């Protein structure tokens, strides 16, 4: 018996697409406040060198059990100027979250907008520099062990997972780019572990100036002042200079700041190898932060916040929450409780 072979004319000759097509977030908020993630502000992940940096960096806590290791690719470590790409992506996502938009790890942006927002040149050199930055960001790997509860896990990832130039002009300049940021960065955004940066950050010429400002922003914050030893500052900066050379470089920056007041938000001074960060008043006191967005939380919200983040000072959390906002949320009470839940999920008890 011969079996008859039937033809299904309605069936596509292609197999079904079994790969999930994730949505991407389009960057189109032109006045988004610059924001940086706290993790890379706390650790010297980015190189200060203007030449390819091939050093492997390892940082450990006081116990020596928890560590973070940064490894370069053949193109060298990502630089402090490459970080501009990350800042732009974080800023756009945070602005979108504040306005209630849906976001994702995959971001589509216009190269020209990124260059303008980060105070870069928009000629051929600017686009070539952006291409090189994407290469170094994708190539730089971070290895760290993260303890969550009683479970320790080892994470190895790149600063950005991938980058794709979607469209180029006829003369070869990129127009649209897709960037997929790492889970590490996206988790920091979702946990609100970000800080607003002064727009003049992008005008700082020297890599060391940028790094010093980041450290001041992270550790001084709303305080009137904050001090750190020169030795500890060099370690936080990740500088490969000798102690004597590092002191000379910092002294030059301080001398220029004394003359021009060019360092954003914080004056920087040095007394007997102690570096002082002095708040210029750009960031309000804790009380002013509570009022600056024009709304107050209900008493019930504070009690729910304590339940959402047991062990945390809810007033400190409220200050931090208001700091990264650029505009009032639609439902401040629900938004703050959600913030507290994210903090507790991310960090546990303080």
In short:
The chain is an alpha+beta fold and 350 residues long. The protein has helices at residues 38-42, 83-98, 111-117, 124-139, 183-190, 207-219, 230-237, 243-260, 286-291, 299-308, 314-324, 332-347; strands at residues 25-26, 35-37, 57-60, 67-71, 106-110, 141-148, 151-158, 160-168, 174-181, 194-196, 225-229, 266-271, 274-279. 38% of the residues lie in helices and 21% in strands.
Low-confidence stretches: 1-7, 17-21, 285-292
| Tally of domains | 3
> How do the strands of the widest beta sheet line up side by side?
1-5-9-8
Number of helices: 12
Task: Provide the succession of SSEs.
Answer: EEHEEHEHHEEEEHEHEHHEEHHHH
State the share of residues found in helices, binned by percent: 25-40%
> Gyration radius, to the nearest Å?
23 Å
What does this structure look like?
- The chain is globular and about 55 Å long.
- 38% of the residues lie in helices and 21% in strands.
- Helix 10 (299-308) runs parallel beside helix 12.
- It has 350 residues and is an alpha+beta fold.
- The protein is built from twelve helices and 13 strands.
- The N and C termini lie far apart (77 Å).
- The protein has a four-stranded mixed β-sheet.
